[in-house]
Amino acid sequence: MPTALVTGASAGLGRALAAALVRREWTVIGTGRDAAALESAAREIGFTAVPGDVTDPAHRAALARSEFDLLVNNASSLGVSPLPPLARYPLAELEDVYRVNVFAPLALTQLLLPALTAARGVVIDVSSDAAVEAYEGWGGYGSAKAALDQVTAVLGVEHPDLSVYAVDPGDLRTAMHQRAFPGEDISDRPLPETAVPAFLRLLDERPPSGRYRAADLLSIHAPATTLNGGAARPEFS
């Protein structure tokens, strides 16, 4: 039975991905900072909860005691809300965004690389359209996701025995998205579950390592091997 580690598994896309993998009879370990929410999700879905902060080296080391076939780096930080322009972005807050969105995923990947490579496994880093398009107010989060995209791309080149993907899941109805638009009604955004089949397609078809949009992967007529590239419309995750 394959084993997956999903970060940020207590809610949103991470929870939806964990549920889909459990339904496929994967062994899933989920982690997240909100212990109560994580343990509630684990009881409902059927995965193993290991609460903690992925920016904490001790927590990452504890996670790395298990061996995995799949790592999903989903945990993310939006940063300051409402979203400030870069000219006024508090640098201490920006450092935290990079710690969560770039350094922690890379550090966790480094720890798990030997087992993942032996298993010819998969690394999925959750990206965003803000990584490839310039949107006012999104300089902090978007630049961190752009850095994560480059980390993902280079890891894919350096580790050809792995499948390494950056995935833009699209504009989803999540708590983080709501924080990006405080006071606005985001009920018209799709639920996170709608993006899950795109991730499953990557696992099933194993196209070349690279950056993919969920919207493209969900197009049943498009071969996954042609879908590497950027995004064409504003989508935030």
UniProtKB/TrEMBL annotation:
Keyword Oxidoreductase carried by entry: yes
Annotated source species: Amycolatopsis vancoresmycina DSM 44592
Protein name: Short-chain dehydrogenase
Lineage: Bacteria, Bacillati, Actinomycetota, Actinomycetes, Pseudonocardiales
GO MF annotations, alphabetized: oxidoreductase activity
Domain of life, source organism: Bacteria
Entry keyword set: Oxidoreductase
Keyword Oxidoreductase applies: yes
Pfam family, one: adh_short
Family per record: Belongs to the short-chain dehydrogenases/reductases (SDR) family.
